[in-house]
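From the pipeline queue, job 12 of 40. The input is one protein chain; the requested action is below.

Action: predict structure.
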Amino acid sequence: MVCGIAGIVNTQLAPEDIQAALARMQHAMFHRGPDEGGSRVFANQGAGLCARRLSIIDLEHGNQPIANEDETVFAVLNGEIYNHQALRRMLLSHGHQFRGCSDTEAILHLYEHAGIDFLDQLRGMFALAIYDVRRQRLVIARDGAGMKPLYVARTPQGFLFASEAKALFASGLVEPEPDLSAIDVYLACGFVPAAMSAFRGVEKLRPGQYLLVDASGESSAEFWQIRYRTPDPAQTDAGYAEELDTLLTDAVRSHLAADVPVGAFLSGGWDSSLTATLAAQAIGKKLQTFSVVFPDDPGADESRFSRLMAAHLGSDHHEIEYRSSLLPELLPKIARHLEEPCCGLPVGVWYVLSSLAANYVKTTISGEGSDELFGGYGRFQVNYPYLMRGFVPRPLARAMAEWCQPTRLRRGLRLLGAPEVRLADAEFRRILTPRDKRLLLRPEFQVDGPDLQPTLISPQLLQSCTDRLQRRLGFDLTGRLANSILFTTDKMSMAHSLEVRIPFLDRSIMEFAFRLPSRLKVRDGREKVILRSLAQRHLPPEIAGRRKKGLAYPVGAWTRPPLDKYVRELLLDSEGPFDRAYLEQQLPRWFAGRPPSEPQFGCLVMLQNWWTEFVGNCGRESSIAMAGIHQ
């Protein structure tokens, strides 16, 4: 069941003050769970839990926090555990007793049964918390892919956690102050990677991480990691395709488990079309599907293909228009719900699509994750810059990048000059260089790094990679997918009290992808080679024969009417971190078609909107007030 969760432990606050803080935190997350809320204060232990609930499973008995039989262990969950029925059967056979049928209750008893090892048995998307009264211990954890967020803050008044940063601010114990190091990373890559957050003193749990908190302190570890495996030499290409077909069919079926209708996002590409097709086959009745159309931008519009798929499925199809003129009104709301600057996805498009689906269903399935698992982006075939690294002196390339003006050439030189291959991968996707940041930011907001370092894949993941493609896919999986795509998907859907389920990120499919040979991902100028056979088997020829077209804002949207005037006013007339004199000098050149690129424009716009909402004139009181604005 999707909701917002929060709590506090190790506090000296009086019980009534804990209850008041929990009430404010609940209210700040109302949009994540408008159906009901609950809280529990452990008066003698300086602790408390609370949750907001979007009722999807066990509508009658699923309110949170949920307790075991003798009320010595309590649990709250944001997300869905897709194997909870199998876990329930196992736990019943060991004598555990259940009051209802929710997945949260299964988590609770699994913790009693297996201790901290319970996390490795969960299959789903989740951020969860368990409070063990006997041990006075809090356990919090986040799923391995990073589909659900979880923020933490350590304060003199106690340890706090919440699904949203706004809930931490609403507690009255945390201030919304910018973390300049996180802003530095954001300007380099377009997102703030966990464990960082955009706010000083606030962190995010990493995907696959758990944290134990008790009177003696904290301990943390990973219960699941992304690692590539050796392929089975006896397995044939056809055998791999058949296995993926079975795994995806089972994953979609498990992701449809709900006591309310489940819809599907439909773009007309392979990923959403496959998940929608398998969903329609599984439910045995008319599926509700949802798409965005771009009436002002035919080049970005894929409605012909989404409508073709909807007709093929016989779905009850719904569409909503996206126009660039919507953005000036939407961006303050988007910044408020994102809570951190993020420019990796067209968040305005996601916002309006989620608003459409929320009018009809509480939960949808979507096709995210396939590109990062199976090599769906054309950039994974661009290898020549890496080949040139063996012929160009790296110190020379770095020196040339400092004075070079063209954005793409400068980025290429930084890739060539990168001292290690992990940093070369990050340079390939860089948005702003350290020199760009020095010019753009006012002196008081400049810091010396960490730049791209927090985005690099771990040495352990690098060691598991056997080729360049695996390394670059690993970089996207642990970086952009977790911290930008899934981050945006969660925040924009939950802004409208909508759950998005992602079958391609089922653990069975992820682990399959990690042992799949690279030749079945990218080969001979084709992306997602293994999915082609599934597309040909399940989809109409017009869809199966398509090449990937990513979801994006229309080309040139930031620098042409109606957004050009908005961008000028936002960047020049708002109080923020940017050097106004530099922007006044550069904006005419930029709007004339010279650098920066569109990702750079989006990066600046999203940062300024976030700054205005949370830093500028807001302060803590205004941020708390904003937390009560649910849409």
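Job complete. Residues 65 and 76 are 5 Å apart (CA to CA).
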